[in-house]
Amino acid sequence: MVFTVAHARVLVTGGASGMGRLYAQRAVQEQAESVTLWDIDPLMLDATASALSGHGTIIHTRVVDVSRLEDVRAAAAHELDEGRIPDVLINNAGIVRGNDYFWNTDSERDTEPTMRINAIAPMHITREFLPAMITDAPREKRILNVASAAGTLSNPRMSVYAASKWALIGWSDSVRLELERSGNSHVRVTTFCPSYVATGMFEGVRGPLMTPILLPDIAVARAWQAMLAGKPQRMTPWTVGLARALKGVLPPRAWDVVADRVFHVYSSMDEFTGRADGGPTREQTREAENRA
Prior knowledge:
CATH superfamily: NAD(P)-binding Rossmann-like Domain
Pfam families: adh_short
Family: Belongs to the short-chain dehydrogenases/reductases (SDR) family.
Structural class: alpha/beta
InterPro entries: NAD(P)-bd_dom_sf (IPR036291), Sc_DH/Rdtase_CS (IPR020904), SDR_fam (IPR002347)
GO molecular function: oxidoreductase activity, acting on the CH-OH group of donors, NAD or NADP as acceptor
CATH architecture: 3-Layer(aba) Sandwich
Number of helices: 9
Number of domains: 1
Shape: globular
Largest sheet: 7 strands, parallel
Helix content: 40-55%
CATH class: Alpha Beta
Distance between the termini: 50 Å
Radius of gyration: 19 Å
Keywords: Oxidoreductase
CATH topology: Rossmann fold
Strand order of the largest sheet: 3-2-1-4-5-6-7
Number of strands: 7
């Protein structure tokens, strides 16, 4: 039986803009019963809900700071109380910090929010919904965890971001195995590992050799296809998998030479700004507002 989003309940974190909004658009186009958008930006949530409405899919929105466990628990409890057990859960929300060496970063401004939002939040969110998703058998479910190629390769100037995505990948694939081995394979987990995506979060980066900066709609289309098929993992473009394989077989110093001088991975963040004007990304602005 082919899994379809038609008549399904979909929940997207970070769903007000960027790739999150594109995932929501996909769900509406494929006639989902409902789409719930979680985001920290109320104005963008309203704008996105308005744009997605009127196409036969019910749109729900909620302002949620996924870095706060109490917010996640309250929002998840509301969904479950309303009978909206997700058929598709997309852990998309994320932030990026970069362009500096680790010892110059700020633990409170950089490390804590990056780990909470990119790594810990998907764990909390999935934990709140997964028991209900499991017991809602035999209806098939999907969990899409949006990681990054940064979680497969070390890269200077993005150590904390890389750490958050390494953690996400390890956790996500472990949960996949737990579901399969416990007889709950009707809930399938897909981990998506793209290279740089042109959402504004990585403005200024240079794609490594044969690794173009992905357009958001292309990245979302590939993640969506993998999620529907229930694939354990999707890396894109193909050079991400090649680099991981080479790193696995080459001695560390040999891989350093290949990564640096051939693929130019290690210099890809040298001109990172986060925006073309050098200002903070919208995600960074949100974090500043949260702390104020």
